[in-house]
Amino acid sequence: MPWFRASSLIFGAWAVVFLFFPRYSNELGGIGYVTSKHAEDWTQIVGLFSVAFAVLLHQAHRSANAEARRIVARSVFSLTLPCALLMSYWQLIPERRWIRLDLANIALLCFISYGMFVQAEFSRRRA
Protein backbone atom coordinates (compact mmCIF):
# COMPACT_ATOMS: atom_id res chain seq x y z
CA MET A 1 0.00 0.00 0.00
CA PRO A 2 1.32 3.50 -0.75
CA TRP A 3 1.44 4.64 2.88
CA PHE A 4 3.16 7.92 2.16
CA ARG A 5 0.60 8.91 -0.48
CA ALA A 6 -2.40 8.00 1.69
CA SER A 7 -0.96 9.79 4.72
CA SER A 8 -0.16 12.84 2.61
CA LEU A 9 -3.75 13.02 1.39
CA ILE A 10 -5.10 12.74 4.95
CA PHE A 11 -2.81 15.50 6.22
CA GLY A 12 -3.71 17.59 3.17
CA ALA A 13 -7.42 17.27 3.92
CA TRP A 14 -6.84 18.22 7.55
CA ALA A 15 -4.75 21.21 6.39
CA VAL A 16 -7.56 22.56 4.21
CA VAL A 17 -10.18 22.18 6.93
CA PHE A 18 -8.07 23.59 9.77
CA LEU A 19 -6.41 26.37 7.79
CA PHE A 20 -9.34 27.74 5.80
CA PHE A 21 -12.32 26.81 8.01
CA PRO A 22 -11.07 27.14 11.61
CA ARG A 23 -14.35 28.35 13.11
CA TYR A 24 -16.38 25.64 11.37
CA SER A 25 -13.95 22.89 12.38
CA ASN A 26 -13.96 24.09 15.99
CA GLU A 27 -17.75 24.28 16.11
CA LEU A 28 -18.12 20.87 14.50
CA GLY A 29 -15.51 19.16 16.67
CA GLY A 30 -16.15 20.92 19.97
CA ILE A 31 -18.96 20.08 22.34
CA GLY A 32 -20.20 23.33 23.82
CA TYR A 33 -17.65 25.35 21.84
CA VAL A 34 -17.68 29.09 22.52
CA THR A 35 -16.42 31.21 19.61
CA SER A 36 -12.86 32.33 20.31
CA LYS A 37 -10.39 34.03 17.97
CA HIS A 38 -7.56 32.58 20.07
CA ALA A 39 -8.83 29.03 19.50
CA GLU A 40 -9.20 29.72 15.78
CA ASP A 41 -5.60 30.94 15.62
CA TRP A 42 -4.40 27.70 17.21
CA THR A 43 -6.52 25.71 14.79
CA GLN A 44 -4.86 27.52 11.88
CA ILE A 45 -1.43 26.74 13.34
CA VAL A 46 -2.41 23.05 13.38
CA GLY A 47 -3.45 23.53 9.75
CA LEU A 48 0.00 24.91 8.88
CA PHE A 49 1.67 21.91 10.54
CA SER A 50 -0.64 19.65 8.56
CA VAL A 51 0.45 21.37 5.33
CA ALA A 52 4.09 20.79 6.28
CA PHE A 53 3.51 17.10 6.97
CA ALA A 54 1.48 16.67 3.78
CA VAL A 55 4.33 18.14 1.72
CA LEU A 56 6.94 16.08 3.60
CA LEU A 57 4.99 12.85 3.06
CA HIS A 58 4.35 13.66 -0.60
CA GLN A 59 8.06 14.20 -1.19
CA ALA A 60 8.87 10.97 0.65
CA HIS A 61 6.42 9.18 -1.63
CA ARG A 62 8.27 10.51 -4.68
CA SER A 63 11.76 9.85 -3.26
CA ALA A 64 13.82 6.91 -4.44
CA ASN A 65 16.13 7.13 -1.41
CA ALA A 66 15.13 4.37 1.03
CA GLU A 67 17.01 5.94 3.95
CA ALA A 68 15.19 9.26 3.51
CA ARG A 69 11.87 7.43 3.42
CA ARG A 70 12.72 5.61 6.66
CA ILE A 71 13.68 8.88 8.37
CA VAL A 72 10.43 10.54 7.28
CA ALA A 73 8.42 7.51 8.42
CA ARG A 74 10.08 7.53 11.84
CA SER A 75 9.50 11.27 12.22
CA VAL A 76 5.83 11.07 11.28
CA PHE A 77 5.35 7.98 13.46
CA SER A 78 6.83 9.86 16.42
CA LEU A 79 4.14 12.53 15.92
CA THR A 80 1.04 10.55 15.03
CA LEU A 81 1.10 7.82 17.67
CA PRO A 82 1.36 10.22 20.65
CA CYS A 83 -1.34 12.42 19.08
CA ALA A 84 -3.69 9.44 18.74
CA LEU A 85 -3.03 8.40 22.34
CA LEU A 86 -3.47 11.95 23.64
CA MET A 87 -6.72 12.44 21.72
CA SER A 88 -7.99 9.14 23.10
CA TYR A 89 -7.08 10.21 26.63
CA TRP A 90 -8.80 13.59 26.22
CA GLN A 91 -11.98 11.94 25.06
CA LEU A 92 -12.06 8.96 27.41
CA ILE A 93 -10.90 10.22 30.79
CA PRO A 94 -12.31 13.73 31.46
CA GLU A 95 -15.79 13.71 29.93
CA ARG A 96 -16.32 10.30 28.36
CA ARG A 97 -17.94 11.96 25.38
CA TRP A 98 -17.11 10.50 22.03
CA ILE A 99 -18.24 12.14 18.84
CA ARG A 100 -17.86 10.57 15.41
CA LEU A 101 -15.38 13.20 14.24
CA ASP A 102 -13.03 12.38 17.11
CA LEU A 103 -13.33 8.69 16.42
CA ALA A 104 -12.56 9.30 12.75
CA ASN A 105 -9.53 11.45 13.54
CA ILE A 106 -8.18 8.94 16.05
CA ALA A 107 -8.73 6.10 13.56
CA LEU A 108 -6.92 8.07 10.84
CA LEU A 109 -4.02 8.82 13.18
CA CYS A 110 -3.78 5.13 14.08
CA PHE A 111 -3.91 4.24 10.37
CA ILE A 112 -1.08 6.68 9.61
CA SER A 113 0.89 5.44 12.64
CA TYR A 114 0.61 1.84 11.50
CA GLY A 115 1.68 2.73 7.96
CA MET A 116 4.65 4.73 9.18
CA PHE A 117 5.63 1.93 11.56
CA VAL A 118 5.67 -0.47 8.61
CA GLN A 119 7.71 1.94 6.50
CA ALA A 120 10.13 2.89 9.29
CA GLU A 121 11.65 -0.60 9.46
CA PHE A 122 12.69 -0.23 13.10
CA SER A 123 14.20 -3.71 13.17
CA ARG A 124 16.53 -2.99 10.23
CA ARG A 125 20.13 -2.48 11.24
CA ARG A 126 22.42 0.06 9.66
CA ALA A 127 25.43 -1.21 7.80
Number of strands: 0
Shape: globular
Mean pLDDT: 85
* Element pattern in H and E: HHHHH
Largest sheet: none
> Can you give the helix content as a percent range?
over 70%
Could you tell me the radius of gyration in angstroms? 16 Å
Percent of residues in beta strands = under 5%
What structural class should be given to the helix and strand makeup?
mainly alpha
Alpha plus pi helix count: 5
The count of domains is 1
For the terminal residues, how far apart are their CA atoms? 27 Å
**Low-pLDDT segments, ≥5 res:** none
Notes on the structure:
The chain is mainly alpha-helical. It has one domain. Helices cover 81% and strands 0% of the residues. It contains five helices and no strands. Helix 1 runs antiparallel to helix 5. It is globular, with a radius of gyration of 16 Å. The mean pLDDT is 85.
Features:
mainly alpha
Please specify the SSE layout and strand pairing.
Layout: H1 3-20, H2 22-29, H3 37-62, H4 66-95, H5 100-120
Helix pairs in contact: 1-3, 1-5, 2-3, 3-4, 4-5
In short:
With about 130 residues, this protein is mainly alpha-helical. It contains five helices and no strands.
